[in-house]
Design a protein that fits this description.
This protein is an alpha+beta fold. It has five helices and five strands, in the order E-H-H-H-E-E-E-H-E-H. Strand 3 and strand 4 form a beta hairpin.
Length: 152
């Protein structure tokens, strides 16, 4: 990888060092995440379910992340589910999120997916506007309840 300070790249994060370095950014989306060891263990378990973490790298630092996996069910057929999508607060408005969505779209099409799916909170109007601008449409309301004390 070229390491010039003007470089921008989108690539998967693979090593424990790369994953640990992105933990502060992931905490912008998931503030409940524990320490680095807990984070790496979670990623390890999720990888067993085909989870991958795609990063937008600018000046040798992850400025946006997208965690996703390929799944299949009776509703959608084969689809890409985006678990996590976050852009560093200071970088929002710089099109990093749009670049990641485009890269994810390419990956999903390349994997012969029928659909691209993600969830966002009902109260997250900024994210909803962003997703609409990216061509995503609302198609469902998800219901859930906590079965243990707090979100994890």
């Amino acid at each position: 990888m070229n390491t010039s300070t003007t470089e921008a790249a989108i690539r998967h994060l693979e090593t424990p060092e790369e994953l640990t370095a992105c933990l502060p950014l992931m905490r912008e989306l998931r503030p409940h995440l524990g320490d680095a060891d807990d984070f790496l263990q979670r990623i390890g378990r999720m990888r067993q379910q085909s989870y991958r973490l795609l990063a937008a790298i600018h000046e040798r630092q992850a400025v946006a992340l997208a965690g996703y996996r390929f799944q299949e069910n009776l509703i959608y057929g084969r689809f890409m589910y985006v678990d996590d999508l976050v852009v560093q607060e200071s970088q929002r408005g710089s099109r990093w999120g749009a670049r990641l969505i485009s890269a994810l779209d390419d990956l999903a099409r390349g994997a012969d997916c029928d659909k691209f799916v993600l969830d966002t909170g009902l109260g997250n109007a900024l994210a909803q506007r962003f997703y609409f601008r990216q061509g995503l449409l609302t198609s469902a309301i998800r219901f859930s309840k906590f079965l243990k004390g707090s979100p994890a």
